[in-house]
Amino acid sequence: MKERRKEEREGGREERIERWREKGMKELRMKDGRNGRRKEAREERTKGREVGRKREKERKRRKEARKKEEGGREKEKN
Fold first, then answer.
1. Which of 25, 29, 40, 68 gives 20 a disulfide partner, CB atoms 3.0 to 4.6 angstroms apart?
2. Compositional bias (Basic residues) spans (predicted)?
3. Residue 29 per-residue DSSP state
């Protein structure tokens, strides 16, 4: 009985992890303190950070491109 419940819980956990990954959540909220799960949560956080940094770089690049474009427009007006 205990083993079956444990298996069900583990299966549900895997499904939750997949849903979180699909949503792009940065961190897995794991209540369990086992090292393997902590490691998984840490990996997910680092993935989230990497994605965030890439997005931030892209935003900066677009902002700089927009500034250059606007600067060119002002020169044309003068």
1. 25
2. 56-65
3. -
